[in-house]
Structures are given as C-alpha cells and as structure tokens.
Amino acid sequence: MEPSQKIDIKQMKVLLIFFIVGDLMWFLPSFTASASKQDAWISAIIGVVVGLGIASFIYGFSTKFPGMTLIDINRRVLGRFAGGVLSSFYLLHLLMNGSAQIRVIGDFMTTQMMTETPMRVVLFLFAAVVLISIRTGLPVIARTAQVFFMMFVVLFTILFLLLVPESEPHNLLPLASHNTAEMMRGGFFVIAFPFCQLTVFLMLFPLLEKEEMTFKSFITPVLYGGAAIVLVVTLSILVLGSFMTEHQIYSTYVMAKKISIGNFLQRLEAILVINYLLSTYFKCVISIYAFCRGVTILFGLSDYRVLALPLFLTMFGTAYVVSSDVVFLNSLGPAWALWEITEFLALIPFVYAMHLIRSRISGNQLGSS
Amino acid sequence: MSAILLISLLCAWAIFRECMPLVKKKLAKDAVVYMLLLLTGASLSICNIRLIEVPSPMLLLQAAYGPLLKWLGLQ
Questions:
Q1: How do residues A150-165 score in pLDDT, each as one tens digit?
Q2: What is the 3-class SS of A103-118, one letter each residue?
Q3: Taking CB atoms and an 8 Å cutoff, what residues of chain B touch A336?
Q4: Chain A contact set for B47 (CB, 8 A)
Q5: How open is the CA angle A132-A135-A136, to the nearest 5 degrees?
Q6: Which of these, A30, A99, A157, A345, could form a disulfide with A318 (CB 3.0-4.6 Å)?
Q7: What residues form DSSP beta bridges with A310?
Q8: How many domains does the structure of chain B reveal?
C-alpha cells in the first residue's frame, strides 16, 4: 500500500506558483514578442486576464466533481471506453510535457553553460532527480517546494530590482502600434502555456488534506504567477528591446547577463539559472507525478511508485525523441500551444457539456417515470 | 557500449527487484504495465545513448495543426 499522499492548501499554493512560473522564463518572452513586438507586455496582460478566466473555469469544474481526479471524471462522464481513450491522450500529453521540461534544461545547459557536456548526461541526471522525487511522494515534493519558495521569491526580486536600472523605456515605443489580432496572437501563448496546462491540478486536488480549496486560495497563487509573467515579459522588452527578445532563444538569460552595478556586481545570470532550474524542476515533477497517478488510476494498479523506474527510462528517452535540436524545439511552440488549448477544450468544456447533457437526460427520465 | 550495458543492467535489476515481486503477489496488471513502460523506456534510452535518429512524434503535431496555425497567422 502506498503511504498517504495528502498535502495542505499552503503547499498546494506554492506548487501552483511554481507550476505557473515553470518554464515560462525560457521561451515565453520570445514567443510573445514574435507576435506583437514591443507590445508584448500588452499581449501578456491580455493573456493573463483570459488565463485567469480559464483557471477559474478549471476550479469551477473541479468543484462539480469533488474528490475525483480527471481520469475518474472522464470515466464517469464519458464511460469506460471513451473516457479511457480521452484519458490516455491526456496522459500522453502529460508525459510529453514532463519530458519537454527535461529537454529544455538539457538544451539550455549544453548550449549556454556546459557546452562540452553531452546532452544525454544532463538529461540522465535531471531525469534521475525527477525519479527520486516521484518515489518519495507528493508530500515531500510539496515540502521541498515550500523550502525553496522563499529563496525563489528573493532571487526573483533581486533580479527584478537589478534589472530596473538597465531598462530603457523607449524600447516600449511606439506604444500599442499593433492591431488587436496581433496582440491576441501574442496573448495566445500566455493563455496556452501556463494557464491551459493547469488541468494537471485536477489530478492533485483530491490529494488535499481535510479542508477544501476555496476559490480565493486557488486564484491568489494563479494571480501571482500571472503577475510574474507580465513582469518577465515587460522587463525583457524594456531591457533587450523587441528585436533581441524575439530573436534570442533564451532572451531572459541574455537579459540577466546585462546586469552590471558600477562594473563591480556582474555575471548575475547564475541567479536566474537557479530560479529557472527550480521552477522547471517543479513543473516537470508535477506533470510526471500526475502522469504516474493517472496511469495507476486508469489501469487500476496498486501503487504508483512502482512505475517510477521504468518511467525514468521513458522520460530520459522521450526527452531525446521529442526534438532533434533546440531550434526545432523552439519552432514547436505555436503547434504545442494549440495542442495545450485543444487538450483543455476536450478535457474541460467538452466533458462538462457532456456531463450537463447526461444529467439533463437522466433528470428527464426520472421526471417521466 | 558501456552505457547500453548500464541500461541493460538497470532493466535486469528492475525486472528482478520490482517486476518479479509484482508477479509473485499476483498483480498481473501491474506487471504488464511495468514491463510495457520498461521496454518503451529502454528502447528510447538506447536510441538516446547511441544517438540513433528517431523521427520526432512532434512532427505529427506540426502536420495536424499546420493548416490551423497558418489560418491563425502563427506560422
């Protein structure tokens, strides 16, 4: 029997923030800037506002099915077969997401920091850390997140404060020169990447200890995460300008390299890298943990932890297969964003509509009998 | 070659240490899922270590969403 996997609301909040910030700092500024150039910050605000609506919808959906994971909900609403098929697609999506996080770390490390190290070594080590985390269970993951959270916030704040002197407000000009469609295109990435991916928490909500998560306690960390997105995108445009933000793969890393206080305090990008690694690690662990639990529930297995070792090899292999190189991975952004949105639409609004139709039909049948 | 040996040893250890107890406990379903994941993982890991080129499954994603992406002006 597996030990209790319960966590409390504070821990869930921290996990939510880490998940939203996740890997956004790697790619999001360049994706947004590619669509709306110097107006990327407006796109980010639009994306966060729509994203908050999506997050609220996900929360509302979870309250309709208390104590049930997404796999249970699919099975209950769509039946064993159709629900199983939809859940399988979702699990595949989770596995690819988790593996992509590992790949992102591998690509970054071997192109920017440890250029002589073979990427498979970085992938192997990172996947091994994820394996250990999955085996220890959600409470340990959540406590680790709590321990690192303050450090994450402090480093993020230091980075932000040190970059303010480097910012050049004229980079934002001309203001609002793009049309609504272009701004929406920029916001589309913000909506897809952290917010549509929040469906993963439907696998974790049933693991909350005693008290129920209120809307306020759910939306507050989402709001903080959204604020971090707007801050990072705006800062990137202010410091680097729209051209550099758009064309640099790791624009925020390049941005952090510009920190220089009196030619004395320099090369502080390591701060950023620590933050990147922390948030990406937690996002990856949450996705893979949800995958493990999902497989366990879908196939009715006894203990999810047994799957950790084969899953480690699968992650290690998939991280390699997912993309041939960093350029291809970066070019996948728009298609991946659409995949996220499709998954969200298929999992939440579609399943909810089916639930409403079924309950109406069964209500009518009860009324007529 | 030594890396492939490492993966093989890892798989052998996993089968004897984790999969066999599942079979002994008559958890057949668990053992089947375990073996499927292990085989997939081991094959992909060997491809990774030997740098064997495997077409990315994400090409399917690009092919499937290509027309929609063009229509949305994202490609």
A1: 999 998 898 888 888 8
A2: HHHHHHHHHHHCCCCC
A3: 58, 61
A4: 317, 320-321
A5: 85
A6: A99
A7: none
A8: 1
Q: How many CB atoms lie within 10 A of CB A368?
A: 6
Q: Which of B:16-75 have CB within 8 Å of A?
A: 18, 22, 27, 29-30, 33-34, 37-38, 40-49, 53-54, 56-58, 61-62, 64-66, 68-69, 72-75
Confidence of residue B49 (pLDDT cuts 50, 70, 90): confident
Give domain status of residue A72, yes or no: yes
Domain-embedded: residue A358? yes
The answer as to whether A218 is a domain residue is yes
Residues of the domain holding B47? 2-72
Q: What pLDDT does A57 receive? A: 94
Q: Which two tokens stand for residue A48?
A: 């966060």
Nearest to A321 by CA among A120, A24, A110: A120
Among residues A364, A236, A293, the alpha carbon closest in space to that of A7 is found at A293
For chains A and B, CB pairs below 8 A equal 115
Percent of chain A predicted with pLDDT > 70 = 97
What is each CA distance from B56 to A96, A107, A111, A319, B43, in whole angstroms? 11, 16, 20, 10, 15
Contact B7/A at CB under 8 A: yes
**B15 in contact with A, Cβ within 8 Å:** no
Give the model confidence (pLDDT) of A312-368 as tens digits: 999 999 999 998 888 888 888 889 999 999 999 988 899 999 999 988 888 766 555
CATH number of A168's domain: 1.10.4160.10
- Distances in Å between the alpha carbon of A262 and those of A240, A316, B6? 19, 43, 51
Residues of A in contact with B54 (CB under 8 A): 320-321
How many independent structural domains does chain A possess?
Answer: 1
Nearest CA to A24 among A1, A46, A52, A44? Answer: A44
- Best A88, A110, A338 member to test B by mutation, with max B CBs in 10 Å, is A338
In-domain check, residue A193: yes
- Three-state DSSP class for A189? helix
Tokens of A193: 């990447």
Q: Which domain holds residue A252?
A: 9-362
